Amino acid sequence: xxxxxxxxxxxxxxxxxxxxxxxxxxxxxxxxxxxxxxxxxxxxxxxxxxxxxxxxxxxxxxxxxxxxxxxxxxxxxxxxxxxxxxxxxx
Length: 90
Description:
0% of the residues lie in helices and 72% in strands. The chain is mostly beta strands. The protein has one domain (2-85).
């Protein structure tokens, strides 16, 4: 059995600092659950054949996780947030 990741698009509340750096603060899932982001450990830009955007390594309740910002083809300032959910495939 192998693990497959699916994208769940989410709403993210975020702030910008004085230099314009983006800090995601809270994730709102489609089922109504919300998660406060304790801190952002790392941020880097990703380019892949199926994805162009940013990956944030975040901490929620002491555990590392990843949050992605998928850039729109229309503008680098437009896009959608998603989390990668793990699921098993036989």
